[in-house]
Amino acid sequence: MNITLPPMPYALDALEPHVSRRVLAAHHGRHHAAYVAKTRTLIRRTPLESASLEEIVRSSVGRDTALVNASAQAWNHEFYWRSMNPGGGGEARGAIAQLIEESFGSQRAFSQQFVTVAGDQFGSGWAWLVLQDGRLHITATSDAHTPLITTQMPLLTIDLWEHAYYLDYQHRRLDYIAAFLGRLIDWDFVNQHLARRSVRSTNVGSAGN
Ligand code: ZN
Fold it and tell me: In terms of CB atoms within 10 Å, which of 37, 43, 57, 174 comes out highest?
């Protein structure tokens, strides 16, 4: 079985004061761990037992609600950890910076739209920066839903479940979103992901990119 709880890419106190050690410890060690454990239970002695997490998410859509919820949450959380880095945030750099200018007009416009979409998401869910048809978009998904099962290519995500921020920010979700944008986004991860995806999508890329 390939599905295990991945270690955090940084220390549990590395994102303080923006995300506390207390929140990160429970979020990774209990919430993320529970989604991984549930996924393992549901794929045991099935044809998906040796599949990758991406394959499990994609192949369970429309067939097994419990499995798609658990496996998508496992995938979303791993993607979320890697979307952040101590000392991150602020102005985007490299290829993603140019794409942000082309898609949103400016980094400021990108940030404003990200705050609006993430702030307006009703209830539990995620906000995403995705690539589709050569352009960037900001979207939100409810509960466990993930762009992984769409034609959009996820590049960045913020967890909007209350377990991600309530102990640190209470009802002030906008302060958490501001910290994510200003202090936490790992633009190097976004650029690495963008480069990989570009290779895979060159045959469907538009003339404009
Ligand atoms: Zn979460």
Answer: 57
Residue-wise pLDDT tens digits, 122-133: 999 999 999 999
Q: What is the CA radius of gyration of the chain?
A: 17
Task: Spell out the residues 6+ positions from residue 79 whose beta carbon is closer than 8 angstroms to its own.
Answer: 154, 157
Q: What is the pTM of this model?
A: 0.92
User: Torsions phi, psi of 195, nearest 5?
Assistant: -65, -45
**Average pLDDT in the chain:** 93
Phi, psi values for residue 121, rounded to 5°: -60, 120
Ligand 1 centre to CA of 85 (Å) is: 16
Question: 178 is written with which tokens?
Answer: 């501001």
Find the 23 Cα to ligand 1 centroid distance in Å: 10
Residue 31 CA to ligand 1 centre (angstroms) = 6
